[in-house]
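The passage that follows is intended for readers who have already worked through the single-chain material. We present the inputs for a multi-component assembly, then the predicted structure in tokenized form, and finally a short commentary. You are encouraged to pause after the input and sketch how you expect the pieces to fit together before reading on.
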Amino acid sequence: MAFDELKKAKSDWQAGIEATLAKRPERRKQFETISGLPLERSYTPDNLEELDYFRDLGFPGEFPFTRGVQPTMYRGRFWTMRQYAGFATAEESNQRYKYLLGQGQTGLSVAFDLPTQIGFDSDNEISIGEVGKVGVAIDSMADMETLFDGIPLDKVSTSMTINAPASVLLAMYIGVAEKQGVSRDKLAGTIQNDILKEYAARGTYIFPPQPSMRVITDIFEFCSKEVPKWNTISISGYHIREAGSTAVQEVAFTLADGIAYVDAAVKAGLDVDDFAPRLSFFFNSHLDFLEEVAKYRAARRLWARIMKERFGAKDPRSMMLRFHTQTAGCTLTAQQPKNNIVRVAFQALAAVLGGTQSLHTNSMDEALSLPTEEAVSIALRTQQIIAYETGVAETVDPLAGSYLVEDLTNRIEAQARDYIERIDRMGGAVAAVENGFIQREIQESAYRYQKAVEAGERVVVGINKFQTENETGMEVLRVDPAVREQQAARLAKLRQDRDAWAVDRALVVLKETAASERNLMPSIIDAVKVYATLGEICDTLRSVFGEYEAPVTI
Amino acid sequence: MTNERKIRVLAAKPGLDGHDRGIKIICQALRDAGMEVVYTGLRQTPAQIVNAAIQEDVDVIAMSVLSGAHDYLFPKVMDLLREKGVDDVLVIGGGIIPESDVPPLKVAGIAEIFGPGTYTRDIVEYIRGNVKRSAA
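Having made your guess, compare it with the prediction:
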């Protein structure tokens, strides 16, 4: 088709509707995505004039992987339905995991409480009020043994949302597996292990950037030899988006973080194709349906190009952006909470149409508290309905070729690339976090969004339109405050029963290793096996590495 | 033009929670409304917050917790304020706070709780209408 002819016809058509517009104006002067990408009235083939099928799309499972990382995608196997869960004690979380597996969930996803995520034991004073609240409290390998009791670690894959102390929790997982008689090479799962977004958006950092990057590189190296099926990192845009970024910023900052990790590992002497196939990603699924579908496709294509062109990767698996998705917690409303079921369903559908490898669907009550069992069950059923009933999983990348989706994919990739170039000029993602650039970009977008909602320019059903009075209260899940006392008692007993000499020795070796350039993983594994606590191990590392002091960016 | 003292606010994140989108939006909105805002950053103990409030001579403490630890942390801040003899600071809170937790927090002395979906202008108005110290 001649684009000139089409362009002329299109401008004639636009001119022809001026009269209609004069009589019946459109709802807005300008239309745009939730992230502010301008939208035309209608998209036509000339919007894709520059698109080259083989260069930009290719076939599913082939470079640049725009259409998906596997050739058959969900025709082979559905995405992993993986609900993030965990609260209170290891016993209670273990019950919830068994329940979820019994309901047809196909992978585990462990939520840890904040003291665990920041490397404090439950009996530390700073932990008061937080123990068992946003996840399960894990103080030592003994808790980890309870957490996975009766769950065969060679049969499930386990994702752990743990960052600064990821090495310690991975070591505990390996230790528990050994006790179950499962060797390291059989273990499948993920540690989030993405410290850069903790500095930028999530806040559970411990050590400064340089030693943190070293620990991450140690994990890459150790796992490439010892735990080959483990995803050593989940480079996360999820929390960047939750903190208020746009879709473009989510892609840009996440991939910039990815570049920093690959750079650090390559500088440490690792071969890119030895570790890059185990890198994984984690994205948000927000409200703007088509923009989100395009976002995943753009991220996949951009990462493939970066790995090939910038890092000279040869193994196609190094170029594949495999990702987990969670629906956007920040879009859930505390008002009319049942509406959230519908929001989550659309967001989940976008993730599936975008080719996600695994998915967490939020529960309707998460703007109120941790989810109840009923709410979690509806969220999981939502995924099952998409998979088994809607038909969208029967063909690969079904929205490819949509003029709009391809155009958005192009624009998101191009704008994310521009951001990455800016970050490169600052010295990379570590520098861009230390100087506060990424934080400021995110908070400006967040404030702009809030103002648009308050001005009524952006409608949130139940908040600034279609409100109802006298809402009935929902039943919420409560964590018993006695959890802290229970954990403290367990810790006291553990400290009494364990071999104190072995613990001391393990911590001394750990400290020496931390001060050297040797890989930290073996000495962390030795320490957890003699039941050194998470807090003791992290304190030992703090004594060598120091602690991160966040710049205040507002 | 009056020489009215600007309302001074300490925006604080008690506990270990890292969710700071909300508190940063509050900081920007209160500044846009003409208030002076000092933000503590993450991971503040109740004692640090109370000390900062006294040092900065604030009229308002606005705290945000999304981890569920509000039930311990908010009352603890109130206890420490009372210990230090501070009774003229307006203390408000926000975050993921179940409705049934609000009455006990108010009994503890938290003046108001603002949940998800609150407009920043409502918080501005609330502060202006309820600040305890007379702006002199």
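Commentary: The mean pLDDT of chain B is 94. The two ends of chain B are 14 Å apart (CA to CA). How closely did your sketch match?
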